[in-house]
Amino acid sequence: MTKPTEQPEMVPAAFIPAVKSWKFGTSAGGEGSVKTFPLTCGGMDLHCNIQGCISPFEPSSMDGAARKTLVLRLPVPWDGPLGEMEEALIKEVAGHSKVLFGTQQSEDDLRAKYKYITKKTEQYPRNLRVKLNTEGYYATRFWDLERQKTTAPEEYVGLMFSAVVRFRAVWVGAEAWGLVCDATDLQVLGDHQPCAECPF
Length: 200
Known about the structure:
- The protein is α+β, with helices and mostly antiparallel strands.
- It has one domain (20-191): CATH 2.40.50.
- The protein has three helices and eleven strands, in the order ββββαααβββββββ.
- It has helices spanning 79-95, 97-101, 107-113; strands spanning 22-24, 35-41, 47-54, 67-73, 114-115, 118-119, 127-133, 141-143, 149-150, 159-172, 177-191.
- Strands 1, 2, 3, 5, 8, 9, 10 and 11 form an eight-stranded mixed β-sheet that branches. A three-stranded antiparallel β-sheet has the order 4-7-6.
- It is globular and about 50 Å long.
- The protein starts with 21 loop residues before the first strand and ends in a 9-residue tail after the last strand.
């Protein structure tokens, strides 16, 4: 695997559009099932480009499904903003809860039901869970260092990526709700080589 010659430049985390500017579209899904509400901002899809992500695990799915979960360890500049984005989403959804859930919901109720896509543990970097689609309309595209389309890697553990993620929709079920976050594009930067720490 080709190794990156230098640490990729970080895109400013402020590029996440303010949640209050997000628009919730018309729901999809039958009665009694999970409903999804498409998200846009200014008439455009909601994307952000996160450079320098590391994959600590292999993608996983239930029963070998084509839609897998990929965990990305985020670079430091994205730690706070993505956590703040999820908190802002809970507050925003509270204001739309009668439409989204059919009944008014408090922020505390929504926070208890929300399935977070990011996780922060003590001093360790924040992780982001994205959906990796291996086939179909939303299939993830892969790119090499020359910006040429390529195939998916055989193994993901330890790889560094630039990732374009799309906040596609809010999903709402009977007991839980969350954010649909797809990895639309992944550029393989190479193997992550952590710097050795001075022992003195």
